[in-house]
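Researcher: Please predict.
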Amino acid sequence: MNPPALIIRRATVDDLPALKAIWVSMQLPTEPLENRLTDFQVVERDGEVVGAIGFQIVRTAALLYGEGYSDFSVADAARELFWDRAQKLAANLGVFRLWTQENSPFWQHWGFHLASEENLARLPEPWQASEGKWFTLELKNEDVVNAALTKQFGQFSEGEKRNSADAAARAKKIFNLIAVLLFIIGFAAIGIAAWLFLRFRNSSH
């Protein structure tokens, strides 16, 4: 008989009792994790939550944390699901770099490596107080992306400046044309008035 399939989904308030039991067994602080319930993805088997992991985002960085299981026989299969979900969330939410303090060989197998001093300089401030080793995985080169965005913004700004200059030039041409037309109309009006005056004067004699 095949073992029951695992299902991954986002945690809900109904999952709190099972999650608390997992966190206690993993010696994790339950109150802070409970306050971040919406960060968590859970894996269930036959309707029972058997594993969970948090996915928190700060700007372009994401943190995998609070991993735990009530049944470690499903850990590897659950991590496959967690990793697939983490990649999708990262892609959809514009994450450039992943961080974790989970030291399972599974995460290192998928590219996480011990963070260097240069890497740690990019660690978001809210996570810096956490002690222990940090592992990181770069999904996109942030410097390259920022440089490309800066270049694109510069080109956009130059384009806007050219458009503004063109619009100003067109407005000046229109203004000059209107001024010429008004001058012609004014000159014609003076001519007509003078003609009418002379005609009226001649007819009065």
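Model: Helices lie at 16-25, 30-35, 75-92, 105-109, 117-120, 142-204.
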